[in-house]
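Minutes, project huddle
Topic: does the predicted pose make sense with zinc ion bound?
PN asked that the exact inputs be recorded in the minutes so nobody has to dig through chat later. Recorded below.
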Amino acid sequence: MEWRPLGEHATVLVGTQGGKYPHGSSLLVTGREETALIDPSLSVARLAAADLPRVDRVLNSHCHEDHVAGNHRFPALPWHLHGLDLPGIHSLEGMMAIHGLEGAMEAAFRRIVTEDFHFRARPDALAFTDGEVFDLGGARVRVIHAPGHTRGHSVFHVEPDDVLYLGDIDLSSFGPYYGDAWSSLEDFERTLAMVEDIEARWYATFHHVGVLDGQGAFRERLARFSGVIAARECRLLEFLAAPHTLDEIAAHRFVYRPGDPGRAAEHGPAPRAPGARRAGARGRGRALPGRSVSGRAYAPNSFLRQPEPKKSSARRKSFTLPAVIGHQLISDLMPKRSMTTLCCAQNLRMPPLPWR
Ligand SMILES: [Zn+2]
Ligand SMILES: [Zn+2]
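Predicted holo structure (tokens), as shared on screen:
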């Protein structure tokens, strides 16, 4: 494992394959009095005992299986997570609730989390809050709550080395992941706007991208990363120019590319959504809450910059799919969300045929 120092105190422990999932890159912060390890990865989990860093406490950016995979190598130390993600480390049930899977997928993922990612419940894990500072003696780790990916997802600013550790705001070409039960696209968008203004010398991600030097490079990657959300929505709206069932929408893959099995889906077959309904097919079951444009386009009302529907929870229910892929789409289609990209509004005003 490559140890890449970013300053006197902060060192990136570069994960296998550059930190590609299921691996990731952890951050070691060494002060005069204490050393903290942030997000012990699967690569850390696989280190020989002699190669493990000497650590006094473990900090996790959020409670996803890949970010806590190495926690069990430090069973006697305090583990710290944001209070909102704490249920995920307190018990396996909590961890599963964060993902929100069902049926065969849930059972398969439960095994993966425990066997492949070495999940260990720690009922005594500790909560941190936004703004909390871990003073390690000459080095400090400041918590910045950055929800969206999960409820408690946090980034860390390491001083004085001036490193911003971004967790799963991973700046990848895939774009933001907000497909879990505890994810929120709205929160993620607020978080993306918030982190843009955080100045640092180094920006480090858990997956893929690794370390960026300076705010200019960070902002450039962040803009591309954020732009993926709008691109997904545009593709979704284009597809919905004609009626499609939820199965068809899911199969079309607006979040995971065709042929890309996806993060959790790669571990097991995605169950088909039972009772799939054809959007816009009136009189045959419930239709997708949408609107007809020129009698042909079916798109969620939220995309039309309308105020939030009063019965949003009832509407949301009609999107529920017991599949991971379904979860992705539920996030994209949440009626509560206000559509903000000009691109999509423009598409809706265009006649369906030429741009289909
Ligand atoms: Zn994650
Ligand atoms: Zn991750």
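Observations noted during the meeting:
- Residues 215-239 form the longest helix (25 residues).
- The CA atoms of residues 9 and 30 lie 5 Å apart.
No decisions taken; revisit at the next huddle.
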